Amino acid sequence: AVFSAWQYFKRRDAIRHWLMGANGERYVGQVLDREMTSRGYRVYHDIQIRKGRRQMNIDHLLVGPNGVFLIEDKTWSKPTKGQTVVKFDGKLIFKNGVPTKAPVVEAFALAKEANAYIKGLSGVSVPVKPVLVFVGWYNEAENRHESPLLVLSEKVLPNFLQNHRPQQVPTVQELRLVAAKLDAANVA
Predict the structure, then answer these.
(1) Contacts of 109 (CB under 8 A, 6+ apart)
(2) How many beta carbons lie within 10 A of that of residue 145, not counting itself?
(3) What is the pLDDT of residues 120-148, one digit of tens each?
(4) What is the pTM of this model?
């Protein structure tokens, strides 16, 4: 019992962060299922990709009339006092003014892997637009349609994506093929 208690206290922060992330991912998934399927999008969750010895996880992948979107959600704990503001300057994420590049690098890497995964399934290469979603944080990012990365809150995610005009949009036939191959791979 003493050993178990010691192990729990040793790992409780990691367990708490994992549970918070899992709950955030589930919540964003519910938003996407509820809002995007009725708008003509196919929604895929929790896609596991193995590359060599590395295992990667794509939180959500959307295939819709205006392209393919990789959704990487982040559920960060909030401070007990003060703001909960996320900004994106085109290169760095600022979490209450503190810069970090890790989520940006991760989103681009996952979009690249999603493209390779889709190409392996379907034989076509389609642009995959990375989207970072910060659950519960106020977002002050200026998202432009030409931006290579979108940074959104879960509240504006469905409407922004539906109205998004990417620079490159796959053909309807390519999008149908991609969705059919993802469906056949039992990714949904």
Answers:
(1) none
(2) 12
(3) 999 999 999 999 998 876 777 777 667 78
(4) 0.84
First to last CA, the chain: 41
**Backbone angles phi and psi of 22, in degrees to 5:** -65, -40
The token duo for 84 is 């909960």
Do 133 and 28 contact (CB within 8 A), yes or no? yes
Q: Which amino acid is at 87?
A: K
- The three-class DSSP label of residue 118 is helix
The answer to whether 109 touches 115, Cβ cutoff 8 Å, is no
Say how far apart CA 182 and CA 52 lie, in whole Å. 21
> DSSP character for 81?
S
What are the tens digits of pLDDT across the range 15-25? Answer: 666 565 566 67
